[in-house]
Automatic annotation (TrEMBL):
Transmembrane segments: none annotated. It comes from Actinoplanes digitatis. It holds the Pfam family PhoX. SUPFAM superfamilies: Calcium-dependent phosphotriesterase. This is Secreted PhoX family phosphatase. It comes from the Bacteria. InterPro entries: PhoX (IPR008557), TAT_signal (IPR006311).
Amino acid sequence: MTEEPRLLAILGHRGRDAKTCLYRCGNACDHPAPNESANPYLGDVINTALTRRGVVRAGAVGALVLGFGATATATASAPAAAEPAAGSTAQAVLREPAADRAGALTFKPIPPNELDSLIVPNGYDSAVVIRWGDPILPGVPGLDVRHQTAQRQSAQFGYNNDFLGVLPLGRDGRRALLVANHEYTNEELMFPGFTSQEALTVEQVKVAMAAHGMSVVELERVGGTGQWRPVGGRLRPYNRRITMLETPFRFTGPAAGSAWLRTAADPKGTTPIGTLNNCSGGVTPWGTVLSGEENFNQYFVGGDAAPAELKPRLARYGISTTVRVPAGSRRWERAQERFDLALHPNEAHRFGWIVEVDPYEPGSRPRKHTAMGRFKHEGANVIVARNGRVVAYMGDDERFDYLYKFVSDREFRPGDSAAARRHNLTLLESGTLYVAKVTGDSPAAEIDGSGKLPSDGAFDGTGRWIKLVSGERSYVPGMSAVEVLTFTRLAGDAVGATKMDRPEDVQPSLLTGKVYAAMTNNTNRGVGTFAAADEANPRNANKHGHIFELVEDRGDNTAESFTWSLPIVCGDPADPSTYFAGYDKSAVSPISCPDNVAFDSAGNLWISTDGNQLDSNDGLFATAIEGSERGHLKQFLTVPPGAETCGPFVTGDDRSVFVAVQHPGEITGATLDDPASTWPDGDFAKPAVVVTWRLDGGPIGS
Ligand code: FEO
Ligand code: CA
Ligand code: CA
């Protein structure tokens, strides 16, 4: 329901909580950054002079977006599995900018707050779509935390929803498929009487494994509004759970079946079980969902007893090679032996991939694409380049890790024939993987780590995409193609990729082809022996993060060179180290720790946050990114305490914005029995998906 924002400080804990650090990334901040390579930093890189350019108009197939209802003009159809296929489509729509609305974000921003509620601007409403434990498969009861079982959880909506995709179902704009990631679990907020991971029963460990993975849920529009809800009442043929417990995947690409991926349970190295720590993702123009396997390291024990030659490869991914049970371990080896690397050292290599799920084919086996490399994948977002090849942009979310892109060998085939879709489903199985090397155009002496703009008035410069591997050919000396793909971080080290401040979501605008990456933060930047600020990561002890804008040379998303700038350097606008594209700072909202990005049909940039360091709950923001309103950032929404704001997803008709409220109440000391948040139902905290819409039915934001 809509609430007037009330500025009440209801809880003492603020920002990224210690509990979040433990569960989300295995206390990564307490450990050395795994990148110990001696790569040159930005200032060392040759500055190739490139011309800065303005708006790039995407070519004929360069602007694809999923649309709804009447906006759909071109479709890539997928046959429905168990229900008549009439009009069931993934709509790849050539999108023209809504010129009349471009940049017109007229909502009144909400103020920062710490309310245990979901807050939206006046004139908007919000509702929970689905929450942890809601049944999505038949024959399972709703959530009962005192009698939860792995079998029940495998048929219920999972925990800690992160990425959201909302794909049209049918052509009338009334039904859709929600696809959600379930990144990790908070056992202390799930089980009554929780004391420690070690004290969990094996069945409870299996519940946690079943609560990881992904969900597909059929939705229906509520009346003619922007509200959506699950379709209930009978078997929904598209509804699906993908779990860590038992769902088989298939490896594709050059590393499939390689020796690095073979285990006792899978001697062919082709069929991993489950997907792990799925963070963000993307929706492809052919109507599938990509999902990034991120902090998989925290689920393994026994790295101390792994073969000596493997230890550097494990350590580069944050897996302890000195301690049998690292602090914060999930202890999943008690339920499934494969998580003990002393026994199954290759099991860890079967995670850290981009997975692709076809929600229109509920019986299809999801795939892990080795051609897209292996790192702590935040997600992947695809655009069709002018030459028809598809380009996926990806971030490796770790302090001092890298930006990547993948270019397919084959070209996207438009149209809604079954043959076209079959073809497009293969696009991510072969191609070329690049890593970014970035340089600034200002003298290094002008980048003093304070955030002060250099004398040319901008943090900006040029960059190159360094080819790592193309098909079965490696471009990295001393590494085979399979090694480059399986140990991609080491390949990035070897070629001198640029160390960034935690690259999270990386997404191209389908209107302009420009690419936007959220650099969440890096409090180690410039601290002690850690690398100092550079023009692309210009603040030491960077606690608030920034947005990186990348413009491919010639407007060609397959280009091997680009220009870049930082349109937003986050924080309190009163802080002189912040920058909002030169916009009047008195008119912008404070923002901290950008994580996920999205676009509406007018091309406005939506940014969600994780770990706000400005004494407010996390939230969702929007700004125009072209024209005179560029940098006019306004806060649209806040989530309850302890939660991060995920998703977000703006539907193609601009009438609904979905967000995933992940880990509400995740605050040190809080438990299920003594919760720090009771959102959304008033009893205890539950991760949930929320939809917001405009009460008068108009487009969101404008
Ligand atoms: Fe799962 Fe990079 O946040
Ligand atoms: Ca500059
Ligand atoms: Ca994230």
